[in-house]
């Protein structure tokens, strides 16, 4: 499925592998299953190895519960453990390290209107992701776990992406003419 | 009750540590490869590029084989593996608002799926891509992440209750 090229020496092969999205996809799939096998005793739900939206929810609500002594809803695995799941913190640290090491870290500012749009966008994406019970990544894990509703989510998500792409194309055409 | 490799006493301490290490690895590689699920579908629709899409499709296939592998190795940790066969195929793996009829979960999958795809493609990336771009120094992606953090408190406090009330009002409660 993925285009595989075979360079002669070993180091380019490794760097090519690291830079290919299919490698990361395979890694997330296997490691999510491994982390469930390792940690499920702490509590459910199943197919919860990696998810950006749910793990953000667990992190924020879990920390708010600890600091402000509230009782916001979160997944049992984060409720039972001493601290909620930390994978989003890990993603931020890992991406920051990688960007610094490879000199791709660059501050990019825009205007306030765009900040507001992105804030509302993030807010809405989290609401819809939580109503379904996962972001695109947990939807993929759930599909792998045998959940039919998650497959429906992926299909309608693809339709939504196509609709958004067509909208953007039409807008670009209008600006040109 | 499902039991994993670690006992409950150990697992409650291991959860933050293991997920943190997993996240660092994923974040590092996601920054290297520009990994994005929404971007995969977008590039395919626009240019027929399959590079990013292959990442997302590989994730679905690899997660199936990963769960299958650990189902063989530690069956007690994968209590309901292949969910559609071992449980009611129309109710999801727990995580969505609980206690509703199966039809409600199909609505929960179809409509939010479309809206998540639409919003994310207009903003130029799925949640993980936005988080990675925020780490790379993009302010607007940082505001996307802050929006997700604020949204999670609002969802737990208000929206999840409203959704259940709405579904009961149209006759999809239990």
Structure description:
The complex is a heterodimer of chains A (177) and B (174). Chain A is built from eight helices and no strands. By secondary structure, chain A is mainly alpha-helical. Chain A has one domain (14-176). Chain A is globular. The N and C termini of chain A lie far apart (39 Å). Chain B has two domains: 1-87, no CATH class; 88-174, no CATH class. With 174 residues, chain B is mostly helical. Chain B contains seven helices and no strands. In chain B, helix 2 (37-47) packs across helix 3 and helix 6 (127-135) packs antiparallel against helix 7. Chain B has helices at 8-33, 37-47, 51-73, 83-86, 102-123, 127-135, 139-169. Chain B is 72% helix and 0% strand. The chains are: A mainly alpha (177), B mainly alpha (174). Chains A and B meet through helix 2, helix 3, helix 4, helix 5 and helix 6 of A and helix 1, helix 2, helix 3, helix 4 and helix 5 of B.
